[in-house]
TrEMBL record:
It comes from Lentzea guizhouensis. InterPro entries: Glyco_trans_1 (IPR001296), Glyco_trans_2-like (IPR001173), Glycosyltransf_2 (IPR050834), Nucleotide-diphossugar_trans (IPR029044). Residues 225-359 form the Glycosyl transferase family domain. The keyword Lipid biosynthesis does not apply. GO terms for molecular function: glycosyltransferase activity. Keywords: Transferase. Residues 434-588 form the Glycosyltransferase 2-like domain. Pfam families: Glycos_transf_1, Glycos_transf_2. This is Glycosyltransferase. The keyword Transferase applies.
Length: 845
């Protein structure tokens, strides 16, 4: 079984660093990785456990405490050496650590080999607590990652950094004694908030692979022991303040004692922490307790196990279960993170805090009594009253807890999504296709969509997976997806998030995610397919099997499905149905000849081709003064692929049923020739009715003969340049194919080829963004050859295809001999968008 190796530079079992490691590591444990954790006893010198064996440290049962083998046999590497190098760092002197670092690196690598490590999590490794070890860790990562082709296998999180924890301890900016962070192909760095990220980039401006990973606020995994208060001599009816932290001067536990003095006698304080870590501080606090007359109200409870612990020993979870409030009155410049606050929020307990330097950065919007320690070093009576009210006012307490937990859940979800995106789960050995499903508020349809994707015939469940990309849903979409995954473990369903709104962004995020994960497999030469699906439509039971078969047989870069409407939805609407069917019949012919172009409703792309052309490209347009992403990402992507010399194949037996609401919603605009947008702008609109009964009579009635003609002309104008002209414009060699020559006729095929070459030469190096570089020439070729193109469609598809729709009125005064010249001006007039409006705006029928 694969192993995740964690290394903490904190050298203690009870710390926020270790707690956050456990929260994140549990995500990977859920994927089947065994979790090993090195607490850093052999890394950090100032905690005193250097080379000390593990004995009684409390961690969850699924975490194995481990350490690098043989470090105690490296000559010169001991606690005194580490202390000496840190002192040299403080003097801005770079210590000579190369030889020892080389030996440490070899021991790290050998340990990883012996354990079968496939992933590494580093906690606080950037701090120059141990320059030799950090240097060795970088060396081991580079060599081990390259040897095993692991890709980005290191999760490196810094909780403190030099400017956040005990400033001055590590020298002065730019910290010359600290090993530089690096743009390694094997490492991704994480800061805890935006301010830490900004400061990190100020120090290391070259760094690219750095993201913000905030507090995770994971809810308790078990209930607290009921005998906690009784065991520690605390009356059952007493109010309890919980303080769990290291007992050292920087934590300012004296403030809790002064606060307790201002509170009623029924309030008690429980201090959880190692009283032996800093004996002088413990003695000072005990004396202060006596001086303030608080001896019977204060419990020094010793070290508790982590909240996640399931052992019989008392844990922080037990303390939280009985606490009325959690305290974090720390030094102004010591803490940037404040793990006790996140534990309180997760457990549904209110908290109080001091306003330390980065409190408002780390916990924006959270509600709590906050002591301004720059104004008042010790708690005031006013602050104490506020704390007591929060402890005793049930209504206020419930409101504060609910508010904080809502923020915490959002933060935890965002953090988990980021980890899932950057460190995606391994892909099954048999998986050949990843189906990408962008969703936004699809709770009403999602069960049916996922069921149709699960119930695929002709392909085994372990041959494909589903990547659901949530695009900021506010309904139960994500919860439904997770429930579906739990109920149907035979199908791998991954849920990721894309924060930038727009189906193009969501589709790209899902395909990039799947492509990255497929890269980790052992056979890099195999064909792997990224498949687009739409939550708005339904796939047939053999949709995926037929698409896969066509791609495997033809070895094409893109496979395009067949799309259809269910005739039952158009009963009583024969004119509309006839217009739709004529378009679909034309498409069947041209797709069979040219392969067609991908539509987000259903297509597949081979991974190598996807990556070589740069993946899906997001284009932006201005709409009402804002940049919005363009909706033609699927067509643009097809243009990029075909324009790069790749083949597209048509899979007519792979079928997708189009949701009729697309037609019903846009029918008025189709009739008037302005569907989906105008003047060069295509904008996303939510066309989902609240329920089927909300559709107007006009949306379900048939068209008049005049309306049917207008709708058909609009549809065929949109269809012909894209599906008849564009394929040969992008791939002129198609005009040498016998079937294509038979369709066009030899004379028209020859003249089309000649004219394409002329137009391409005329327009070279102008604008080669896919959506623009081929739209204008396609329009031009359509207008110049429209009569002959329609003659071929009538001959091939049927006489009812008819004749080209009338030209725009602006051509009425154009002399025939200058027609092609003015066609150019018309089609390139992007200022007015007239040609765009004339030809339609995509997706009609």
């Amino acid at each position: 079984m694969a192993v995740l190796w964690g290394v903490s530079f904190d050298a203690t079992a009870m710390s926020g660093v270790v707690v956050e490691f456990v929260k994140t590591a549990e995500l990977f444990a859920g994927r089947g990785l065994r979790i090993h954790l090195d607490l850093g006893y052999d890394v950090k010198a100032d905690k005193g456990p250097f080379f000390r064996p593990y004995h009684g440290e409390q961690v969850p049962p699924w975490v194995t405490l481990d350490r690098v083998d043989g470090l105690d046999r490296i000559s010169g590497y001991d606690q005194d050496f580490v202390t000496g190098t840190l002192e040299a760092v403080q003097r801005d002197e770079i210590p000579r650590v190369g030889e020892i670092a080389d030996q440490i690196a070899r021991q790290i690598e050998q340990t990883w080999e012996d354990r079968g490590v496939t992933m590494v999590m580093v906690e606080n490794g950037t701090l120059p607590e141990n320059v030799a070890y950090t240097t060795a860790l970088y060396q081991a990562i580079e060599r081990y990652g390259a040897r095993h082709a692991l890709g980005r296998f290191v999760f490196w999180r810094d909780h403190d950094m030099m400017w956040q924890s005990e400033p001055g301890k590590y020298g002065t900016f730019p910290f010359p004694g600290t090993p530089n962070m690096r743009n390694s192909p094997h490492i991704h760095y994480f800061a805890l908030h935006e301010e830490a990220r900004r400061r990190t980039l100020e120090w290391q401006p070259h760094l690219r692979n750095l993201d913000v990973l905030p507090n995770t606020f994971r809810p308790p995994q078990r209930s607290g022991r009921k005998d906690f208060k009784r065991h520690h001599g605390i009356p059952d009816d007493a109010k309890l303040i919980a303080r769990f932290t290291r007992i050292i001067p920087q934590k300012r536990i004296d403030r809790d004692l002064h606060l307790l003095r201002l509170l009623p006698d029924d309030v008690h304080l429980f201090i959880a922490g190692d009283t032996g870590e800093h004996p002088a501080e413990t003695l000072k606090l005990r004396r202060l307790t006596d001086e303030l007359g608080l001896t019977r109200r204060v419990v020094f409870g010793g070290t508790l196990a982590q909240a996640e612990s399931t052992s019989a020993a008392f844990s922080v979870r037990d303390l939280l279960a009985h606490a009325d409030i959690v305290s974090f009155l720390t030094s102004y410049d010591y803490e940037s993170y404040g793990n006790p606050i996140s534990e309180a929020v997760a457990a549904g307990v209110p908290y109080l805090t001091s306003r330390y330097a980065l409190y408002d950065t780390v916990y924006p919007g959270f509600r709590a009594p906050v002591l301004d320690i720059l104004t008042h070093d010790l708690p005031t009576e006013e602050f104490a009253r506020d704390v007591h009210e929060l402890m005793t006012d049930a209504e206020r307490r419930a409101e504060v807890v609910a508010h904080n937990q809502e923020l915490g859940v959002h933060s935890r979800t965002a953090a988990n999504d980021l980890v899932e995106r950057l460190f995606p789960p391994a892909m099954g050995a048999g998986v050949k296709l990843s189906v990408v499903l962008p969703v936004f508020n699809e709770a009403a349809n999602l069960d049916a969509v996922l069921t149709s994707l699960r119930e695929q015939d002709g392909i085994e469940p372990d041959q494909y997976e589903i990547v659901l990309v949530d695009n900021n849903s506010t309904d139960d979409t994500v919860a439904i997806a997770h429930r579906f995954a739990a109920e149907h473990p035979e199908i791998a369903l991954h849920v990721i998030a894309e924060p930038e709104q727009g189906v193009a962004c969501a589709r790209k995020a899902g395909m990039d995610f799947a492509a990255q994960r497929s890269r980790a497999r052992q056979d890099p030469g195999e064909r792997f397919y990224l498949v687009s699906a739409d939550a708005d439509c339904r796939v047939d039971r053999r949709w995926l099997a037929e698409l896969f078969a066509a791609m495997e047989h033809d070895k094409a870069a893109i496979g395009v499905c067949d799309y259809y409407y269910n005739a039952e939805h158009f009963v009583g609407r024969p004119r509309l149905w006839d217009a739709i069917q004529r378009t679909l019949r034309c498409r069947a012919v041209t797709f069979a000849l040219f392969g067609g172009f991908p539509d987000g409703k259903g297509f597949a792309v081979e991974r190598e081709a996807y990556e070589r052309v740069g993946g899906i490209e997001i284009c932006y347009q201005l709409h009402n003064g804002r940049f919005v992403n363009h909706l033609s990402d699927d067509w643009d992507f097809g243009i990029k692929v075909r324009g790069s010399g790749y083949d597209i194949t048509y899979a007519p037996l792979s079928k997708v049923e189009i949701n009729p609401r697309r037609v019903n919603h846009a029918i008025d605009e189709v009739i008037t020739g302005r569907a989906y947008g105008s003047d060069g702008i295509i904008v996303m609109r939510d066309i989902r009715p609240q329920n089927d009964e909300t559709q107007t009579e006009a949306q379900t009635a048939d068209l008049t003969e005049e309306e049917a003609l207008q709708a058909w002309e609009f549809s065929i104008k949109d269809f012909t340049p894209k599906n008849t002209v564009l394929p040969v414009l992008l791939t002129p060699s198609l005009l040498d194919d016998d079937a294509v020559i038979a369709f066009f006729g030899a004379d028209l095929a020859e003249r089309l080829g000649r004219r394409i070459a002329e137009i391409k030469d005329e327009m070279r190096v102008v604008d080669f963004t896919p959506i623009h570089s081929y739209k204008t020439p396609s329009y031009r070729l359509y207008l110049e050859f429209r009569h002959e193109l329609f003659a071929r469609l009538r001959a091939t598809v049927g006489e009812d295809i008819g004749y080209p729709p009338p030209l725009p009125e602006c051509f009425a005064d154009v002399p025939e001999e200058r027609f092609a010249e003015f066609v150019k001006y018309y089609c390139e007039d992007r200022e007015s968008g007239e040609a765009h409006n004339h030809f339609g705006n995509g997706g009609v029928f």
